[in-house]
Amino acid sequence: MEKGGWVYIMADRYRGGMYVGVTSDLVRRAHQHREGTGSRHVAEYGITRLVYAERHEEIGWAIAREKLVKKWRREWKFALIEADNPDWRDLWDEWFPADGAQR
Description:
single chain
């Protein structure tokens, strides 16, 4: 049985630089990005804000969705983020409060 997955978008600021990724463990992966160890691109450009995430029941679906979203125009990605997060808040603090969320 396949494990579920997440498609997520990290950003450096409102409508700024973005990184689209896929993971089976959103807490671990977002924490890596925030610490500068998630990817070279994210670390180099200071992309540390979790601004969007969507859950998929199967990792294969998440991978397919990530590949699709990565090909989108920036404006389409902006619209996807802003549908649920119009202010580009950092969802990390809301979803994973400091009391033990880091692994």
